[in-house]
């Protein structure tokens, strides 16, 4: 009976340990995954964007400059929150080797144009009607911003509304040759 | 004139053959293209149910009506038409959205634990519970017998029986 009792205790203990490990993995296991993007650290996919002013911009044509690629939509409230910071940062960086690109997704052209009229966005802005660029960059919501360095490599992805401080930090990294990229963007 | 008649016959044979084969070929082409289209649509459906919609709560790309899910389905279709395999398409999305895009965790690496641990927990937990129940049942049975023997009614009955035995012995002697 004593042997049975030890086996019982061990079995229950093992089951509890297994369940706890599973719970721990579920809570902490994917933490790095959720915060990073698999495309950070990789070469940015090339695309041609039709701008609202009728012109076109090709990412590969602006190599040698850092790029701030901001995905937004007119119905998105956090996009409205970050609009003043983006506008101020663009004015600050427009004479530096930095290109700001606004990429309107999951939206209609008229609403996007009204939004731009109200919230600025004097930099390059265009629409991605089929969402091909958004999927290519693994965009899962708006606003999402990618920072591309002068060699065309994605150095960071930022999810959520930007502030001037955040823009300065990430553009500083994108402009620096020694940015030491990590998947977490640290 | 003889040559002309032969030529006319040959032309007629060709005409007849053409008249018979053309509709058959058209029908065959239509059927083939339809079955290819059905096949691609089926594959789009199958792949889209394996991927989670990044902007939805617990819905797959196949289930969701969101704009992103619709665009993702269109991309899946385009890639299938370009000849990409199911694995290549899934890898394309995983490379952009991470493994969280998958409807089920892959059965490799640390994710293997997710598949194994619940089964092991059920087996060990079940075995533990079964042993515990068996043990407690048998111990309870023994305790119950002991309790029954110690009960006053049983004790009284046993005393009565002992007295009865003694009286019977006396009567016999």
Which labels suit this protein?
heterodimer; A: 186 residues; alpha/beta; Glutaredoxin; two-stranded antiparallel sheet; 7 strands; 19% strand; B: 173 residues; mainly alpha; Helicase, Ruva Protein, domain 3
3D structure, described in words:
The complex is a heterodimer of chains A (186) and B (173). Chain A is α/β, with parallel strands linked by helices. Chain A has two domains: 2-34; 38-175, Glutaredoxin (3-Layer(aba) Sandwich). Helices cover 42% and strands 19% of the residues of chain A. Chain A has helices spanning 2-29, 31-35, 77-93, 109-119, 132-136, 164-175; strands at residues 48-50, 56-58, 66-72, 98-104, 124-127, 144-148, 154-159. Chain A has a five-stranded mixed β-sheet with strand order 5-4-3-6-7, covered by helices on one side. Chain A has a two-stranded antiparallel ribbon with strand order 1-2. Chain B is mostly helical. Chain B has two domains: 2-104, Helicase, Ruva Protein, domain 3; 107-173. Chain B contains five helices and no strands. Chain B has helices at residues 2-48, 67-81, 86-97, 112-150, 152-172. In chain B, helix 1 packs across helix 2. The longest helix of chain B has 47 residues, at 2-48. Chain B is elongated. Chain B starts with a helix and ends with a helix. The interface between A and B is medium-sized, with 35 and 31 residues.
Q: How many individual β-strands of chain A?
A: 7
Secondary-structure class of chain B? mainly alpha
CATH topology title of the largest domain in chain A: Glutaredoxin
Helix content of chain A: 40-55%
What name does CATH use for the topology of the largest domain in chain B?
A: Helicase, Ruva Protein, domain 3
Return the domain count of chain A. Answer: 2
The fourth-level CATH homologous superfamily of the largest domain in chain A is Glutaredoxin
Strand percentage of chain B: under 5%
Question: Cα distance, first to last residue of chain A?
Answer: 58 Å
What assembly state would you assign to the polypeptide chains in this entry? Answer: heterodimer
Task: Give the helix/strand class of chain A.
Answer: alpha/beta
Query: Quick one: CATH superfamily of the largest domain in chain B?
Result: Cytochrome C biogenesis protein
Question: Mean pLDDT across all residues of chain A, rounded?
Answer: 87
- What order do the helices and strands of chain A follow? HHEEEHEHEHEEH
How many strands, what sense, and barrel or not for the largest sheet of chain A?
5 strands, mixed
